[in-house]
Amino acid sequence: MLERTLSRYGDLLLPVGLLVVALGELAMTRPQGGPAAAALEVVAAALLVRRRRYGVLAPTASAVTLLQIPWMGPALDDLAAPILFCAAVGYALGRWPAGNRGLAGLAVVLATFWVDYRFVDTRQHGVGDVIFVLTLIAPPYVLGRLMQRLAQQKTLLEQSQEAARRAAVRAERDRIARELHDVIAHSVSAMVVQTAAAQDLVRRDPDRAEQLLAAVAATGRQALADTGRLLHVVRDEADELGLAPIPGLADLPALVDRFRGDGLEVTADLDLPLVGLPAGVDVSAYRIAQEALTNALRYGADRTAEITIACSPEAVTIRASNPSSGTGGLGSGLGLLGIAERVSLLGGTLWHGLADDGRFHLDAVLPLAPVERT
Q: Hey, what long-range contacts does 19-28 have (CB within 8 A, 24 or more apart)?
């Protein structure tokens, strides 16, 4: 909406500026037929306002209207402001019409010039006049065509970036879904084993059977929570089986060592949980830490990074930072989109950006209690 408003004001600004200059020139020179010339300049400026919407018609009509001035009294070389109008018309004919359609308007403008020179300005004309007219129209037209090509390339680039962003989000959601699928399968398997054991103990050791059934209930509740998250993503059924074990926070020391081997000096404060976390939180915390260290290795200023993992009964907090090199913008940002997908799916919070200390910070909080979804 803001861009459209600014564009509308921009379309108005140029014709108004040209009109102010033209009317100022008429007021100072006071040529014969000045009032009629002023009226034609007002009409020409008004037509030029619509140059974006009517790419061929509006600029062409503006130039043809302006070139009626010699018929009202002032000669073509008496006024300088029409030169600016002609340049604006040439640019508009190159910038806004699709393809080479602006050439038709350009031909009409040149034909109108010829009519003026042939029937109104009866002086002797030669090649110099042709070059002068072409100089007024052709370079602005070429510039307009160039700007049109650049605008089209910009649009294609933005569309390509948006497609890449959507593909990255889809790929990350697919990976989350596969991991949650395996987590749920493991939970159901554990419930089956625990239920079978409880059946064997229900008469011999009722207390032990009750403990096993309580564990089954807890596992079932966690599986239901993971199922709710899984329903918010779409699994790629055509994807290959994921045979590698799902990583978790217990694998973070090995991950840190691997990044150190790649040349990243990592300062790690890993407060790893003493008891098992919900599997969905466990794998997501690992992936977030992995992405944070990857970004530090690629875009950090001095190949150093700090990472802190804090676990409480309520949440897992991942904090990572690294000195900014000022070139982080060269990355695609797709990894951060993947992190955002994971945090959103788990009902957590995420903040990342450049802080006042010149370091890039990433803070993610993953709640351990299931999040209600509507």
A: 19/45, 21/81, 21/84, 22/79, 22/81, 22/82, 22/84, 22/85, 25/79, 25/80, 25/81, 26/79, 26/81
110 within 8 A of 136, measured Cβ to Cβ: no
Query: How far apart, in whole angstroms, are the C-alpha atoms of residue 80 and residue 196?
Result: 97
Q: How far is CA 49 from the centre of its chain?
A: 30
- pLDDT tens digit sequence for 116-166: 888 887 666 677 778 888 888 999 999 999 999 998 888 888 878 777 777
Of 155, 138, 65, 66, give the one whose Cα is nearest residue 102: 138
| Residue 190 clears pLDDT 80, i.e. is over it | no
Q: At what angle do helices 102-119 and 81-95 cross, to 10 degrees?
A: 150
Residues sharing a CB contact under 8 Å with residue 23, sequence separation 6 or more, in sequence order: 38, 41
- Residue 53's SS3 state is coil
Q: Tens of pLDDT along 7-50?
A: 667 788 989 999 999 999 888 988 888 889 899 999 999 999 99
Beta bridge partners of 364: 318, 350
**Can you count the helices (H) and strands (E) in the chain?**
10, 5
For helices 81-95 and 2-29, the axis angle rounded to 10 degrees is: 150
